[in-house]
Design goal:
By secondary structure, the chain is α+β, with helices and mostly antiparallel strands. The protein has a single domain (13-93), classed as GMP Synthetase, Chain A, domain 3. It is 30% helix and 20% strand. The chain is built from four helices and five strands, in the order αββαββαβα. The longest helix is centred in the N-terminal third of the chain and has 11 residues, at 14-24. It is globular.
């Protein structure tokens, strides 16, 4: 970790801010699967650079018709950070069920999915 990774941003370290943003993204629910994007493994990265938050994420399918719904949810979930949010759609590596967290698997099982 470099010094800039731990430099205070608005009174908190970069690492703590990224953790807070990641936690906030747990409010973003995949509209098709009903599980948050973090536990589904759709979140690939969070970067904070000045007044910008860049979210690297993917979808379960590149043909997902609900991209705008997810974008709106991300912006709403991160509004409290008072920074411009940029979504960077990433397709490599492709998403797969292996990226789902244990919590995500539990949530999917409760919804009736066999994972």
């Amino acid at each position: 970790m470099t010094e800039s990774d731990t430099a205070p941003v608005g009174g908190q370290s970069q690492e703590a801010l990224v953790d807070d943003i990641t936690e906030g993204l747990k409010d973003v629910i995949d509209p098709e699967l009903g599980v948050n994007i973090v536990d589904l493994g759709l979140l690939y990265g969070v970067n904070v650079d000045g007044e910008f938050i860049t979210i690297d994420m993917t979808l379960t399918s590149a043909a997902c018709p609900l991209t705008e719904v997810i974008e709106d949810q991300v912006n709403t979930a991160l509004a409290e950070f008072e920074r411009e949010v940029k979504l960077n759609w990433v397709w490599m590596p492709p998403w797969g069920p292996d990226k789902i967290t244990d919590d995500g698997r539990d949530q999917l099982r409760m919804l009736g999915f066999n994972v």
